Amino acid sequence: MDGPPQLPPELWVYVFSYLSTEEKHTVRSASRHLRKLVEHPSLWKHYIVVLSELRRYTYGFWHTLNHRKLTRVAVRHLRRKEWRRLIKFLPSLTAIVFMDGGRQYKEKYLDNLARFPELREIAVRNATWDEALLGPGLTEHLRERLTHLSVCNVRLPSTVDFISTVSELSNLRYLLFHEQGEGYGLDTVRPVPRSVFHSMLLGLKKLRHLSWGMKGEPPEPLPDDYLSPPNPDQPGSYGGPALTSLELVDYPETLLPENALRSLTSLRSLSVRYRYIREGVECRLRSWISPLQQLESLTIIGGNSLTTYTTTLPPRVNSLTLRVAITLKDMDSIAPKVPGLEHLDIEQNRSSGSLCRRIPMLFPQLRTLRIRFFRREPEKDLLSLHKLRHLVQLELLVERSFILRDYLNGHPWPSPCVQELINELRELSENRITVITAMRQRNLLRECDCLWEGD
Fold it and tell me: What positions does the domain F-box occupy (predicted)?
């Protein structure tokens, strides 16, 4: 065949939408015709291009980015001339991620953001600011425009001043703030004061997703109503935004009271990520989720044994992620609580037992399943998953050290034995199940180092 089949361009674009970025670039180099098709803007709509040393890029490179209508970039550190290049060649940026700057910055560093009229999303990672991160001029420019703000592992001169500034961004829908601390050297992390935090929530009426975390452990627990600002017009009622998604990152068990989430009746998604568990402290997760009967998605990373809270899982949960040691007994206790579960993400180690054999009986409605194997490979019981009649996607992952060890011995992942099982599973399911064995691509805009589970 001299060229690709003569298919309508829109059909080719649809086919290419299933390719990874690397595969798209491979197709791009095959022929001029395919290059034109694979450059269609719809294929790059949510892509984030990582830029460094901007002076090395040619006019052709910038032309390609503009042809794809790319509006999202990630950068490490921009010098003055690089700012000029970015403004000149990508004036329609809608999102920018400053990652791993590892430097000390002044307030004026971000002032150039005011020169991007379409900017809606900003993320800042791993850096130190000597002065305010968002100055008065930039804040005024972004007040009605910014919808997403993500700040993680950034040392600020004053956390209180920063949060007070954030409260002015009235159009925010998404806020991620993982507190690092103030000043330099070792210090005790001080939570944002209740009054300042409440003022922020009262000002951000459109906020729907909140990811809140801190490094270190404060000396005293937070007030009972920390997450529930009172309505100034109706005393006694909740006055904050109608959050649909809440993420608590690195919160010690004793920091939040048992009734901390009781007022968040609009929540549909809850994620709790523990850094460690102190022995002798009663698990409060049970009391946190008990009143949240409207929850549809629940993620627990680390923490106490599953037996301490599985009996209180809300029945409407259809997506469940558990990064804790899990046994067959745990699975048996979870299944009756979430009869409509469609998405399950778990880990399996040597003590877990034959989970794959039990899953079809316990969770017959599953549409996606993700299993991360520790110190072992999938075994023949994997074939039992073809009994899940609604399953369309299966992710099989192993820890990176396992892959590296086997690569050194000449055994790639998936190994020949696992690949044979995968082929057999596909055959049994009549190719209904898509099997993925590689970690998905990281979303640099949403996933900071605290949240990313890749190696």
Answer: 1-47
